[in-house]
Amino acid sequence: MTIRVVIVDDQPLMRAAFRTILEADGLDVVGEAASGDEAVGVVAANHPDVVIMDVRMPGGDGLTATARLVGHRSDVRVLVLTTFDLDEYLYGALQAGAAGFLLKNASPEDLIRAVRTLAEGGAVLDPAVTGRVMARFAGPGLRAGGGRAGGARAGPPRAATLATLTEREKDVLALLVGGMSNAEIAAALDVGEATAKTHVSRVLAKLGVRDRVQAVIVAYETGFAPTARQPG
Fold first, then answer.
1. What is the pLDDT of residues 184-209, one digit of tens each?
2. What is the DSSP letter of 57?
3. What secondary structure does DSSP assign to 60-124, as a single string?
4. Which domains does the chain have, with CATH numbers?
5. Helix (H, G, I), strand (E, B) or coil at 34
6. Rounded to a whole number, what is the largest CA-CA distance in the chain?
7. Could you tell me which residues come within 8 angstroms of residue 194 by beta carbon, excluding any fewer than 6 positions away?
8. What distance lies between CA 87 and its chain's CA centroid?
9. Which of 11, 79, 94, 161 lies 20 to 30 angstroms, CA to CA, from 142?
10. pLDDT of residue 62
11. pTM
């Protein structure tokens, strides 16, 4: 199945560059927008699998647009792509419901990989910011629920929630912490990709989170991640 993408950036040359990179890899760019406000209409008209979203744009910023898109369509996958390595953009993107955050100095291969990962239901954080996310959301007094990190819902104490996972589901969480895709999880566990996807969905549901980024945050918050091991 072809992956449908909408590109949102106020710079025409940047949109053209992204389009060239994505289409060369067989991805289908179905629409473009020059502002956050324009993006809402373009996404509604074209039903993309993934939206590549800039942050700083006249006529509506990307973080506000991301929150609007995710609020209207919970299945939309937004990749925030920005030049500015600022905490306010990073945390704002997660709180708005973005499934990915990438800096514009990423390679074309990183961009393609991120789009494909989001289209498969995964989540992506630029390696340059991963440590800061974990430090913030695993710190004292901060929880992954209650609307932080993209709207994860409040629930029981996270340690208690983690205890509801089966051993296989804990293996899956460990692989999520390692950044693995569904296909890679399937290979690691020697199961079919559909089975791996089911395991991931169950882990997310039990943890009360909406995507993999939040699941990894919970893993760090509870102390699971530092001791997480690869199954086998």
1. 899 999 999 899 989 999 998 998 88
2. -
3. S-HHHHHHHHHHH-TT-EEEEEES---HHHHHHHHHHT-SEEEETTS-HHHHHHHHHHHHTT--E
4. 4-128 (3.40.50.2300), 138-227 (1.10.10.10)
5. coil
6. 52
7. none
8. 16
9. 79
10. 94
11. 0.67
